[in-house]
Design goal:
2 copies of one chain form a homodimer. Chain A is α+β, with helices and mostly antiparallel strands and 164 residues long. Chain A contains 4 helices and 7 strands, in the order βααβββαβαββ.
Chain lengths: 164, 164
């Protein structure tokens, strides 16, 4: 862990770097509701296509995390954004998620969104919940037994929200 | 209103009938978070593509309603389904939504889902909320000011859920 963490939009040349970050999370299947066997191309589409804009967190030329931002709903719901965050396993404990969140909050506000919502925060993910709460996110929903966790079985997922 | 209401899967020949049902709801913009100017082809993709299976409610050869069913999440969340329902304006008050819901609950159970969740029930939609509650759906989340209603301004949306 040396050098500053920089955030920049992910481009067409970043597919391999993105996959390097996403693959461990998706294969583990304990943080995102994504098919654990998802292919690289499908994973990259999931993370970057449609209305999503993806950012890479880079330190010393090494991509260590990524987040996306998108309107959470079209039409009358487009003023609320949704984001997803993944940190590479080897970069945990280095404030990568916190730095990405701060960048996402600024990006969302600059884009004119009035709120940010996370739709599916696993109740088992204490570190993430603690981080979101410390930045003012409140639990606005709890989805009972919404996720089949590979080790814990059926667990709840939270909907978290904050105004911008 | 004559004849029995029958439910059948929507097929490739049902595009015009589906659009006839969806268009009034999407153009009004007061029940679904969909772009009010959505094109016919985009609306049909929205309602039928991806993991969605759409059904038509037909009475006396007239399509009067439609619903879709899909996994609400991929991967570890695929045991919970999500549905959307639309009744043609001229068929309101004829128990179309209720009949579609009963069909959806049976379809979901037969497909092996263990719960059904509605992600974005507008707080202004009292008739729908009452119907869902009467079939055992509980409010598990309330998304503050999640929808810009054309007449009411910013209103909340509910997340509703029941086990199957």
């Amino acid at each position: 862990m040396t050098g500053a963490l920089e955030l920049r939009p992910a481009g067409p040349a970043d597919g391999a770097a993105l996959w390097d970050i996403l693959r461990p999370a998706f294969r583990a299947g304990d943080s995102y509701a994504v098919d654990r066997d998802i292919s690289q191309s499908a994973a990259l589409r999931y993370w970057t296509e449609g209305e999503k804009t993806a950012y890479l967190a880079v330190r010393s030329d090494q991509a260590v995390g990524s987040y996306y931002i998108r309107p959470n709903q079209p039409g009358g719901g487009a003023h609320v954004c949704n984001c997803g965050f993944v940190t590479h396993p080897q970069a945990r404990g280095q404030r990568v998620a916190r730095t990405m969140l701060e960048h996402a909050l600024k990006t969302a506000k600059a884009a004119g969104y009035s709120a940010m919502q996370f739709n599916f925060v696993l109740a088992s993910n204490a570190a993430a919940i603690h981080l979101w709460q410390s930045y003012g996110f409140a639990e606005v929903g709890r989805l009972p037994q919404a996720f089949e966790h590979p080790a814990l079985g059926l667990i709840d997922a939270l909907v978290m929200h904050r105004a911008l």
